C-alpha cells in the first residue's frame, strides 16, 4: 500500500474512533427500552436484522431473537437475498450493505452507520485496481468480498474467506492465472495452499494484521492444551502457529466440535461472543495484538464494526437513515461475480 492509502486508512480509523468515543453510553434500562422499540419496529416494518459476527454481542443477540441472522459475509449475502422481508438492516460494514443491495435491488437496505468501512476496501481504490487489472489482461480477477461494488464490478469472481480456497483450486485445475485482491495475507495463504499462479494486491485488514507471532508463541507455551484458531487475513507467521485456519463460521464450527476446552482466537473478538454462546463451558482467549511495549491500532476489534449500535439500528427503522444505493450499471456487473460465488457454494 502506498502512503496515500496508509494515510487514508489512518484518517478514517481516527474518525471511527472519535465517533465511537462520542456514542452515548447507555445504561441497562436505556438499552432495554431501545431494544424493545427495535423489536416493535422490525415487526411493523416487516424488516429483518442481518449482522456479522464482529458486531457487538447485544446486536448479535437481537438479530437472533428477532428471526434475523448472525453470520459471515457469504451467509449474510445469501440470507439477505433469500429472506421474505423487503427491508433489511445490515449491521456490519459498507461492502456488506452494498452486496445485499446488489443481490436484492428491489429491497430496501439500511445500515446503522453509513460510515462503517473497511481498511481492505479503502486500500483497493477502483481506478488503481482497474489499471492493475488492465496491465494483466491474461489473468482472471478474483476479489475478496471486502471491496467496493465498483471493484467487484471489475472482477470475474467474488470470494469470501470461507470459499476462496475451493474457488481458487477449481480455477487452478483449469490452469488459469489469477489476480487476487485486496488482502495480501489471505492471498499469500491461498497461494501457498493451492500452488496457483496468483498476482496479489497489497492490502491488509487493520485488525488481523496486528496479531503477533512472538507473543502468540509465548501464550501457546503457557497454555499447551489450548487450540489456536486463526483467520487467514492474519500474517503468515501467525497462520503458521495455528491448529486450525478458517473463516469466521469455520472457526466457530471448529470451536463447537473440537474436544478441546480452551482456544486462543486470532480474529476480531466479536466472534468470541458467538463462540461462548455456542460452547458456554469452554474458554476463549484473544490472541495477542501488540508487541512488547507497543500499542495496537485495533486491539482485536474492528473500529468500523464497532460503529454499529442500537441507536443506529433504531434510526434506520424509524427515520430511514443509512439507506444503501448502488448505481445500476455497477450493480449489474458486480452481481455476475457475486452470483458465481453463490452458485459455486450452493
Ligand atoms: S475486521 Fe478487517 S476485514 Fe473486517 S471489516 Fe474490519 S478492517 Fe475490514
Could you provide a short overview of the structure?
The protein is α/β, with parallel strands linked by helices and 346 residues long.
Notes on the structure:
- The protein has 346 residues and is an alpha/beta fold.
- The protein has three domains: 3-117 and 303-326, 3-Layer(aba) Sandwich (Rossmann fold), CATH 3.40.50.10800; 120-204 and 330-345, NadA-like (Rossmann fold, 3-Layer(aba) Sandwich), CATH 3.40.50; 208-286, NadA-like (Rossmann fold).
- The chain is 48% helix and 14% strand.
- The protein has helices at 3-22, 28-44, 57-65, 73-82, 94-103, 119-122, 126-134, 149-153, 164-173, 184-194, 213-222, 236-239, 248-257, 270-278, 310-319, 328-344, and strands spanning 47-52, 69-71, 87-91, 108-110, 140-144, 157-159, 178-181, 198-200, 227-230, 244-245, 262-266, 283-286.
- Strands 2-1-3-4 form a four-stranded parallel sheet, with helices on both faces. A four-stranded parallel sheet has the order 6-5-7-8. Strands 10-9-11-12 form a four-stranded parallel sheet, covered by helices on one side.
- Helix 2 runs parallel beside helix 15, helix 4 (73-82) runs parallel beside helix 5 (94-103) and helix 13 (248-257) runs parallel beside helix 14.
- The radius of gyration is 20 Å and the shape is globular.
- The mean pLDDT is 95.
